[in-house]
Amino acid sequence: MLKESYPYYLASEPEYANTDLEVTNKYNGEVATKVAMADADTIDKAIAAAEKAQPAMTAMAPFERQAVLEHCVKRFTERADELAKALCIEAGKPIKDAKGEVTRLIDTFKIAAEESVRINGETVNLEISARAKGYQGMTKKVPIGPCSFISPFNFPLNLAAHKVAPAIAAGCTFVLKPASRTPIGALIIGEVLAETDLPKGAFSILPCSRDGADLFTTDERLKLLSFTGSPDVGWALKAKAGKKPVVLELGGNAACVVDEDADIEDAIDRVIVGAYYQSGQSCISVQRLLVHSKIYDEFKSRYVEKVKALVSGDPSNEDTFIGPMISEGEAERLHGWITEAKEKGATILCGGTREGAMLEATVMENVPKDCDASAEEAFGPLSILVPFDDYDDALKEVNNSRYGLQAGVFTRDIYKAHKAWDVLEVGGVVIGDVPSWRVDNMPYGGVKDSGLGREGIRYAIEDMSETRLMVIRTPQ
What we know:
Blueprint: E1 5-6, E2 8-10, E3 13-15, E4 21-24, E5 31-35, H1 40-59, H2 62-78, H3 80-91, H4 95-115, E6 122-125, E7 135-143, E8 147-150, H5 158-170, E9 174-177, H6 184-193, E10 203-205, H7 214-218, E11 224-228, H8 231-240, E12 246-249, E13 255-258, H9 264-276, E14 288-292, H10 293-308, H11 328-343, E15 347-350, E16 354-355, E17 358-359, E18 362-365, H12 372-375, E19 382-388, H13 391-399, E20 403-404, E21 406-410, H14 414-423, E22 428-431, E23 447-448, E24 451-452, H15 457-463, E25 465-473
Parallel strand pairs: 1-5, 8-9, 8-11, 9-10, 11-12, 13-14, 13-21, 14-19, 18-19, 21-22
Antiparallel strand pairs: 2-3, 4-5, 6-7, 7-25, 12-24, 15-18, 16-17, 20-23
């Protein structure tokens, strides 16, 4: 069960400033708990505290940062059931998926603990000409400084962890704005961080309104902004961020190619997970499914049959695969896109109906390419089947999108696999699996409207660090 109310964390300390934010149970719509909300003055204090604490954070030895991260791993493991149940309630995530996200939270902090003690520099050979004889160069990595983090609702534990854990490993203080719809997981992370030896003021976790969060982007005391969310919001924040570097993990319209030599049963099983895991509310959810015409009819028949069998309902039920979308408004939006596509000639093969925030797992074909259901990010339980005859044409169709996060390709032909890797305009190509696959140490991010920069602990540490050079002259 959730607590009756939760504080925010200001300068490492819990503050029960108010109970202004109501967090609902996404399945039944009832208020599950209340959370303190920060105003602009509180955010200003948090940034000031992060700036003040940065020298002490920088001075922490790598083994001390590692000890903080290892404590988090221990406590998250001990509180795994509590974290999963909170996630099930606040995000409407089926309990099996919620437990899986807790596992990834723990993995992410484990990886950060490992990386925290191997942030190395290098020696640089400067003697490239006679004038540089006797000069030696060495580099080291230093923390970039206080960081600003804005995390989304769909993975409220692990996507917050992908910002917080590398920041601690790199030696950066931070302020975090969790999604207002799903703040509990981030606040539990705050509870655990407050148990550690981080310098006072090293972190703040502040649920707040979007309007009140302007300082997260514009304040020059913050040296990096990392945002995960929608493309429209992300690019607008980048335009306002000033001189600071910006990392953007934005939306997708992920495509998956199933070639004629694929194992059909294996591909179907993986695509179902990729398309409908947590009701499709993932930026790398399988949305466009390109299937070779030689196997299209068989694939379609077996795929639709399995999608129809997915269990929908209460996310606290162990058998539930499809839970509610994050809000009735989001379910209504996607249902509208499905209806529009049908009116323009698309065929609904299964699903397509909505009750409140529950939208049936839906499969469509013959969807016009200019329909939102095909061209934009569905972010819900929808996949679209498209037949193809020529593999090269299928790859061109994958690229026919303003997004470019990840793509999946089911083929046994090594040359086709390499060609996909060569030509697909995405941040990652997954061969023999769906674009929805991610493990937490890999470089993860997109191109085009899908974002800028890469997450994955080691890669995030690079963004949160600066290279500092020392040159030594030996008199000749």
